[in-house]
Amino acid sequence: MGKVMGNVLGMARPVENLLKWRPCGTGWELYGRILGRRVRERHADLSAVVARKAELEEPLAQVASTLAAQPSSLRTRLTPDRIDAYEQFEEWCRTKAAAPDDVLSAGKRHWTRAAPITAQAAAEEWKAHLIARHRRSRTVDKNQARLRAFLAPLGVKTRLDDITPQCVEKYVLRAGNAPLTQLTNGRVLAAFFGWCIKRRYLAQSPLEVDLRDLAGMARPTETPRILSPDQCQALWDAAKELCPAMLPYLGLSLWCFLRNAEAQRTQPHQIHPDFVEVLPVKAGTASHRTVPIPLNMRGHIKAPIYWSKRHWQAIRTAAKLNAVWQENILRHTGISYLYQHLSEKAKRGKFQERSVIAEVCRQAGNTSETAFRHYIALPVTGASRRFYAVR
Asked: Can you name the residues that pair with 16 across neighbouring β-strands?
């Protein structure tokens, strides 16, 4: 059996199951190895050789079908260092020499010794995975905060496969949370459990809450808030008076509608004379895009990009915008005026009407549903002209 199991269990390398045929005299010869024994047979015609080969390989097909029918029984509770070894073992089960019963029994004996991973350890691995995929640090921190709130009552030593659907439902549908909060909590857990299934830490997700129902309840009823052209002019004048070094940051956020983190981390090589390049590492959507620089901002958006919390708060206070301020309001404002500007050009025949939404979503780096739900508010007619006249 040691020679059969091979390097998966740390023993001798196994002998492959390999059957071939060749002409021999007036007939055909079948030769090779199968199920741990050598085969060398002669037959009168080729059809008899093919039939005999299929008959000898039938036990291997049974092994493959058994593994396909019960993959979770062998893949549950594997630690990361055993995933690669298991894949080698599974491949060996399909192609290497051993009887089917011996294959399954040896696999179960070997892999049930794998220590189950805790939920806390899986959460730390997921965080490292998100960072490696260049997710925004703010997104990673928010996801981890929601995950910690879910795992805190369970305890540090709780195993991942001991989490029940009732526990997940209690957290997602917690009384007092708004529908949007419930939906966000559910999506974070769905992403986490989905990653655990891909890593074979779980056989199935314990999340049984229907997120589509929550999505219907969480749709916002209020129009996204934006700044008027006069407020944008006041903000620009305050920045010009109090801290001119922050004008490039304001131009990127308001007229190129970059996210706060994207604008703050923009490097000199990303700023061109007539457009700004947003790289995947910097983008919240992890997608590369280019945003044109409007004519009124050319000459103002240039490196280096300076940002200071103290100066930024002083600028907002001087412009009297603290009462109406909300997160990413500059991005919402810029996208909304861009949509109105392109719509007006389409009415005059200077832009294709069917391409308006596509162009807005391309520059914003979002889908149309996300853009209209969270970003786009319809300004007063003609306001986009005054918006693009601010300088």
From this structure: 96
Question: Could you tell me if 124 and 130 are in contact, meaning their C-beta atoms sit under 8 angstroms apart?
Answer: no
CA distance 28 to 50: 10
How far apart, in whole angstroms, are the C-alpha atoms of residue 332 and residue 378? 11
Strands 37-43 and 275-278: unpaired
Would you call 239 helix, strand, or coil by DSSP?
helix
Q: Residue 158: count other Cβ atoms within 10 Å of its Cβ.
A: 15
Domain residue ranges in the chain: 2-111, 119-217, 229-387
Using alpha carbons, select from 240, 260, 224 the residue that is nearest to residue 319: 240
Residue with tokens 């074979």: 200
Task: For residues 301 and 295, give the distance between their C-alpha atoms in angstroms, rounded to a whole number.
Answer: 11
Report the C-alpha gap between 354 and 331 in whole angstroms. 23
In this predicted model, what pLDDT tens digit does every residue of 213-268 receive, in sequence order? 776 665 655 566 888 889 999 999 999 999 999 999 999 989 988 888 788 888 88
Per DSSP, what are the bridge partners of residue 289? 278
Topology annotation, domain 229-387: hpI Integrase; Chain A (1.10.443)
Beta strands in the chain (DSSP E): 18-24, 27-34, 37-43, 275-278, 289-292
Token pair in block for residue 221: 């009823």
Q: Which two tokens stand for residue 349?
A: 């025949």
Q: Which two tokens stand for residue 142?
A: 């928010």
Q: Token digits for 264?
A: 């703050």
The answer to whether the pTM exceeds 0.90 is no
Residues 166 and 174: their CA atoms lie apart, in Å, by: 12
pLDDT tens digits, 133-146: 878 788 888 899 99
* Residues 164-185 pLDDT 10s: 888 888 888 887 788 888 888 8
Is the pLDDT assigned to residue 158 strictly greater than 80?
Answer: yes
Q: Sign of the CA dihedral 158, 160, 164, 166?
A: positive
Is 367 exposed, middle or buried, given 0-12, 13-18 or 19+ CB atoms closer than 10 A? Answer: exposed
pLDDT, average across residues 153-170: 85
